[in-house]
Amino acid sequence: MLLIRLLLACLLISLLSPLSTADASSRASAQAPDRQALLLLINKLSYDDLALMPEVQKLSARGAVALMNVNTGGKRTDANAYVTMAAGVPARLDAKDVLVYNADEQVHDVPVTAIHTGLHDQKVDDEVLLLSLPRILRSQERWNYSASAVSLGDALHSRGMKTAVLGASDKGGELWRPAALFTSDGDGRTPYGEVGGALFKRDPARPYGVRTDYEKLWSEYVRLKQRAALLVFDLADLYRVAEYSSLLDSKRLTDLRREVLAEIDRFVGKLAAEIGPNRQLLIASPQVSAAAAAKREWLSPVVVAGGSVQAGSVLTSATTRREGIVSNLDIAPTLLQFLRIERPAGMIGYPLQGVTGLKQEQLAALKEASVRTYNHRSTVLGALGALVGLGLVFGALRLFLGVRVHFRLIWIRALLWAGLALPLCLFLLPLLHPTSLWEVAGGLVVLSLLLVAIPFRIMPFCQTLSGRMVWLSAWTVCAVVIDAWQGGMLAKRGLLSYDPIVGARYYGVGNEYMGVVIGAAVLLYAALLRTSRTSRIKRGWLEAGALIGGLFLTAFFASPALGTNTGGALTAAATTGLCYALQKRLRPLPTAGVLLASLLGAGGLLLLLNLPSAPPSHIGAAAGQVLTGGALEMVHILARKSDMFVRLLFSSVWPPLFLLVLSLFAYALFTPALLPKRVWQERDRPYRTAVGGMLCGAMIGLFTNDSGIVVLAMMSLFALFPTLLIWLEAERGRGETPKRSIPLRHLR
């Protein structure tokens, strides 16, 4: 009987054991995330390095690749780059403010767990702890954004998902573990990971005597891949080589980089075998390599594969609307979208998506073109600014002071016309595909001949001053509007426009050409008013056309699919209203009412055209932030705009000097004693009021745009130069002595 009982007990145990094992397995699988995102951070990786990484190239062919803007909320430092990517907003952070430890480490012989418990009054387990989070959160007030440095990890933890971080950027005894910013929650806790020396292998031949132990790294990944929804790898060997480069000769530096790239590439090949519909791998470099930085190539590579990413595509996002170019603000939203987590309200980036309009093989040419535009921009604009300044100075000396100058009058007027034509020539210059500064100069000469010199000589319509103004201003407005209607290909490549490395704007019409379009439109109206004196054009029809045109431009700038410029919509509406009020000779109080009604109308149009159903844009994003964040978010937006406005206004002595010159011009324009009374009060009063409305509207643009001084300068160009040309019109003659000049005593 006892034997039978023993046999039954053994049978029962044998049956229960597999059941308990199966139950444990089912619990583990229940805890495993149904979707998993793998983020591989390879700091100091350049786009050219991908040619040395065959596994990454294979991964790109299976997914999508792009160039990523690495701008931050401050300087292009490593700490700023990591926190910007993690927060999804332009952010800045001191490297010393990132203190990350494993739970089993100590700081000055004090257990890290005890320190964290003292800071947060919470018990912790075997976790990775961001001890300096309270200090980081206090420093976020400088960002003027509501997003947090740990928005990504906190969004995942709040929905029950786990995160893990593996790897560190330690340099000998200097601890530097910024990848934990992507995985920490609001208490500074990452449930899983290893950021200490356990993943290092001693190697005296490597910088700081260590190298990543990829075998242990893979073992940790295998251990955690059934637990964490987001795994972040910080592969920092390339970063350590870059930090050590000052102690290496060029050959040893090149050899070390090749060794490190080969090791990283092999690890990527192993991870690539893991991806599928429910597992996505994203590779990004927070900052570019030293060699790329020396060439001012501030575009790092980003590769995405797995999930629903189309094979062989290139990446874009609603942040840039540029095929092949994305922003570092888009990394966190991409991970959240794949994990089916709603993007936190404070993030301003958008998820990456693959498109096939551009081939991956064309990215190298896109990079070269973007870098060329960035490098040529300051040189070309500086030279052309000097040229425009010469025209202004010589014209003013000749006209106001009667000073004998070495230039004949025809050359002074040629300089003024060249200054007016420059915005249009620079806008059309990408059609000629210049690749060097000499080609840029030659292209501008060719366009000036085709658009200005030749038409002014052979076209009957352009034989009068007013006709030339109509010709030039009409083409300027049409070129920018039509280009925006067709996708903005010229604006995206223009030297006076925005560029993807500066990163202030990627699409629509920037503040430079916003000022150009509004200034040229008012000049077109003013020139037609002058023409109406000698033609059959009725002034009433011109005024009606000006109002319709102003409404059209307001809608054009307010549209998220066209101009996408909030300040432009407000400036266009204000300028239209002020021109109308001055033409009708309204008193100050009714004029203020017209201005207020115009601004309110533009605001209503902005809201109407940027509803949630509209295409994503920075206008819609700002509106959404205000709706969710309330008054505080509005304060943040105003603070950011004010900060940029002040920085540009006082960046050098030139903006204040320009304001002084513009004030003197406005004084001369509206003071009849400075010029023969019959010129302005009898013959050119409509022109003067139109230009006066343009200048007043430019002052509105000064305060409704973060780069308002740029808007003011561009609009003032179309007020200053045409007016100088009109004033110099009476000075035609072969002699060098002007027929009429304004005595110095009139300026008293």
Automatic annotation (TrEMBL):
InterPro entries: Alkaline_phosphatase_core_sf (IPR017850). It comes from the Bacteria. Keywords: Membrane, Signal, Transmembrane, Transmembrane helix. Residues 1-22 form the signal peptide. The chain crosses the membrane at residues 380-401, 410-431, 437-456, 468-486, 506-528, 540-558, 589-609, 653-675, 687-703, 709-730. This is Uncharacterized protein.
